[in-house]
Amino acid sequence: MAMAALHPSQPIYPAGHPSVSDPGPQGDASSSNNFAGHTGLHALHDVTLSASASSTNLSGATAAHQQSASGPAGPGQGQNAASDGTPGVQYNGLFPKNLKVDDFVRIRTLGTGTFARVVLVRRQHPRTEEEAREVFALKILRKAAVIKLKQIDHVRHERQILQDVSGHPFITNLLVSFHDHDFLYLLLDYVPGGELFSYLRKFRRFDEPTAQFYTAEIVLVLEYLHEHQDGVAYRDLKPENLLLDGRGHVKLVDFGFAKRLGRDGAGGAVETYTLCGTPEYIAPEVIQNMGHTTAVDWWALGILIYEFLTGYPPFWHQNPLEIYRQILEKPVVFPQDPSISPAAQDLVHQLCTVDRSRRLGNISGGAAKVKAHPFFEGVDWDALLERRDQGPIVPPVRFTGDAQCFDIYPENDVDFEQYTQELADQYDGFFANF
């Protein structure tokens, strides 16, 4: 699913939920050569199970949400406070404060999700030639569906965290957010290279220098989120949520499951219990509902490296429950072909350690210990952060606004839940600062 990264992940609901459909026949877990996409449906199977309903606070902001503006400074931190002191992004004269969707011309859809659509847009009334050339990715979320799927907190966390981290070189940049009666809008910078997932499928797998490059950029992102943003857990790391910019660098997108966890009184990470993510990438402690921290992102990084190098994740089945069983019971085993270096295998094994107290990235030293691993030998971390060189894959972007790297989608929603006045009276307060 192209552009899955810029829209909320597709939920899998508990048995009996009205949105559940027949999963169909189950495949053979051993037939990895038949892997055609995460859980067989090109990564449509992100999960937000019943635990997320209990985590949604409909009487006010969650504690994590209340803490989100007070994290330590870092790239992009604090730059998004509105100039008049109200919540929201800083406009800097780029957009009017009473921004409306009619201020943009829709060019085409870049991706669709359960309750969101991402479209390529340009300004309706550009004031200069430069503005006339600018294009943006507009993420449109349906309020009624957000409420129905109990995603209010996730949506609010997404906007707040994007606001706090905008400006980091490897994270999508939130320009402004606004809303009207039926929809919430996030205006993001347009990342023209498309999903890293599509390039991985094209090349079947990456060689180790290519995998090292992308992994290193992701390590810098996780270091920033975990250690400079007061413990932001991303919780949905996968190739579909990594886009490439015009020079071939990673942009992490879709913060729909991200949450700022903070620290407890003893200095440890605060745990959360919401079951969310993509089955192939979910850490054991999430499945066991024993509480999880930012350590889940390091587990997911290990799975991601494995998929970079082999072309498929180590745990896969058409039935998500079987994937969970594999994660809990089976070790990560590498194939004989392709040959994977001992350093790469060791890094994956240290990241995919079931005991999170021994998991690389979550042990003393944090991200610095990951960066010091032999797999990253020769990486100039400063040069990487400054994006001095092009990436190993340079997308074929021909002009500003070129969208050839994204799939074609229908331009109209088939189903549309009405945001009734009754819903507005009950829930508009939760969207007031959007």
From TrEMBL:
It comes from the Eukaryota. It catalyses: L-seryl-[protein] + ATP = O-phospho-L-seryl-[protein] + ADP + H(+); L-threonyl-[protein] + ATP = O-phospho-L-threonyl-[protein] + ADP + H(+). It is an enzyme of class 2 (transferase). SUPFAM superfamilies: Protein kinase-like (PK-like) (SSF56112). Keywords: ATP-binding, Kinase, Nucleotide-binding, Serine/threonine-protein kinase, Transferase. GO terms for molecular function: protein serine/threonine kinase activity. Residues 104-376 form the Protein kinase domain. The keyword Nucleotidyltransferase does not apply. Coiled coil: none annotated. Residues 377-434 form the AGC-kinase C-terminal domain. PROSITE patterns: AGC_KINASE_CTER (PS51285), PROTEIN_KINASE_ATP (PS00107), PROTEIN_KINASE_DOM (PS50011), PROTEIN_KINASE_ST (PS00108). InterPro entries: AGC-kinase_C, Kinase-like_dom_sf, Prot_kinase_dom, Protein_kinase_ATP_BS, Ser/Thr_kinase_AS. Residues 1-38, 58-89 are annotated as: Disordered. ATP binds at K139. Pfam families: Pkinase. Belongs to the protein kinase superfamily. This is cAMP-dependent protein kinase. It comes from Sporothrix bragantina. The lineage of its organism: Eukaryota, Fungi, Dikarya, Ascomycota, Pezizomycotina.
